[in-house]
Specification:
heterodimer, A: Non-ribosomal Peptide Synthetase Peptidyl Carrier Protein, Chain A, about 50% helix, globular, B: two-stranded antiparallel ribbon, 13 helices
């Protein structure tokens, strides 16, 4: 299962944020789909990041998510910043 | 204008102090039940000379899942939420009846999403940029509700927002009527929404000495339009929406016509930013323009739903204006603000709906709380209990800071649909689209 390679806390935080902010649940099959195909637009992503940051109690510079086009990429950005906490 | 472009009211929605559907709201208005309650947050400001209460929406159901998916509620200000919910009720069964590009909206607000600005400002300063919502602008902008309505109901025609302070909603319905008459749209969602009952707005109005002052009276007795003991308005929140359709369109679609918007007049005082001229000259021009637009004389009006804010200045100036327009044959006058408080940018729509029901049923509600009409006010104010009048056209007026005035003539459908039955059938029947 592809999500097992990721930090479980980060995955859960992003999963919860997506449900709260956009109202969608994502599965492992969605991790590599283009965000726009999952119904998440660029403003949604900013709010998802905001809510996930709050849950993880970390702060990630907004420009760290530039070029992020998949949930897996977003999760990876969080993991990089979460590791330093 | 051909009769086919007459503006029919084919849907109504209310989220207001007194009720969240038109029939419940009407019962509260008829009973003269003042809706003001203490609001603890407002009690922190004793240094301003104002009483710490207001009129919240009764049994507010606007966040229910039949109106919004849960995530959507993060992205809408309180006022727009009330407006979207009221419009959903009003549009029940009407979506898709005319082509998208022939659907429109004209909706009013005094200040738009001010609570969003307040919340986001606090987050920015207290926590930092990273917690500021990316949806701040679409939530805060005054045209947020118009945008929501366009999205929700597929309105691809003109979607305008009118900011004329407390005349916003009445002017919106009037401009929507013109839009129907001119053929720019076949169906228009029109009304107003406002929800700004929090400290900053309260203090701002209190500093103008516009709000009701502390007294021995209970909060629900403080809004008393035209009463000798009135001492300021009581703030309220809410939304009122109507759906107007061209008569030909309503007929072709076999819609129940609940009434008509037959006249609209507006004017400006060019006198003072926050006070009417003592003779209510701007109000006179507004009312006369509405009567003229409807092709009626003052003697045709069976009932007036006045602006009647419970402020000393408005009520006196308005009464003089009514005397100027109607002379000795003043029809019975009510103000529903005794029940609802002052809904600011939503008031004109909620009051036009009350006027429509009164016009259609021939029952004029009493002004809640008003016991002794000010001796300087020489109009026929309905007090104590409802008054029976002939079924016929009613005048509903709204006057605003900035010196803006708007008056509407609403007419019943004589021998047509039972307006209350029609209104009862619309409540809460529509979901998120």
């Amino acid at each position: 299962m592809t999500s097992e390679r990721h930090d479980a806390a980060v995955v859960q935080a992003v999963r919860d944020a997506l449900e709260e902010v956009v109202g969608i649940e994502f599965g492992d099959d969605d991790l590599d789909r283009p965000l726009e195909d999952t119904g998440v637009d660029s403003l949604d992503l900013i709010e998802v990041v905001m809510v996930a940051e709050e849950a993880l109690d970390i702060s990630v510079p907004q420009d760290a998510f530039e070029g992020v086009t998949t949930l897996r990429a977003a999760i990876s950005v969080f993991e990089i910043h979460n590791a330093g906490v | 204008m051909s009769d086919g472009r007459r503006a029919a009211i084919v849907g109504v929605g209310v989220k207001a102090p007194g009720g969240c559907d038109p029939a419940t709201f009407w019962q509260a208005v008829l009973a003269g039940r003042g809706q003001a309650r203490e609001i603890p947050e407002l009690a922190d400001h004793h240094e301003v000379s104002a009483a710490s209460f207001g009129c919240e929406v009764s049994d507010d159901d606007s966040a229910h899942e039949r109106y919004f998916r849960k995530p959507e509620l993060r992205r809408i200000d309180d006022g727009a939420r009330l407006g979207v919910a009221a419009a959903a009720d009003a549009m029940a069964g009407l979506d898709g009846l005319v082509p998208p590009e022939r659907r429109a909206a004209v909706v009013g607000t005094g200040v738009g999403g001010l609570r969003t600005y307040r919340t986001q400002s606090a987050l920015l300063h207290d926590v930092g940029v990273a917690r500021a919502s990316p949806f701040t602008v679409p939530m805060m902008m005054p045209n947020s509700l118009a945008g929501w309505l366009s999205l929700r109901h597929g309105l691809q025609g003109p979607c305008h927002t009118i900011a004329a302070a407390c005349a916003s909603a009445a002017a919106s319905i009037g401009e929507a009527m013109i839009m129907i008459r001119d053929g720019r749209a076949d169906m228009v969602v029109a009304g107003g929404a406002e929800a700004v009952m929090f400290t900053e707005v309260f203090v701002a109005f209190a500093r103008m000495e516009a709000l009701a002052k502390p007294s021995e009276r209970r909060p629900d007795e403080a809004s008393r339009p035209f009463d000798v003991d009135r001492n300021g308005f009581v703030m309220g929140e809410g939304a009122g929406m109507v759906v107007l359709a061209a008569a030909d369109v309503a007929r072709a679609a076999d819609l129940d016509v609940l009434g008509w918007v037959d006249g609209y007049g507006c004017s400006s005082d060019a006198h003072h930013m926050a006070a009417p001229p003592e003779d209510g000259a701007g109000a006179v021009r507004s009312m006369i323009a509405a009567l003229h637009d409807a092709g009626l004389s003052s003697g045709d009006i069976v009932h007036i739903n006045a602006h009647g804010t419970s402020t000393p200045r408005n009520d006196l100036a308005e009464s003089r204006a009514i005397v100027t327009v109607f002379g000795d044959s003043c029809p019975p006058v009510t103000s529903t603000k005794g029940v609802t408080g002052h809904l600011l940018g939503a008031g004109g729509a909620v009051e036009a709906i009350a006027a429509l029901i009164a016009a259609s049923t021939g029952i004029v509600p009493p002004v809640a709380n008003t016991e002794t009409v000010d001796s300087e006010i020489a109009i026929d104010v309905v007090t104590g209990s409802p008054r029976t009048v002939p079924v016929g056209p009613a005048l509903s007026s709204s006057f605003a800071f900035g010196g803006h005035n708007a008056s509407l003539v609403v007419s019943p459908v004589v021998g047509g649909a039972d307006v209350l039955a029609g209104l009862q059938s619309v409540s809460g029947a529509s979901g998120p689209g």
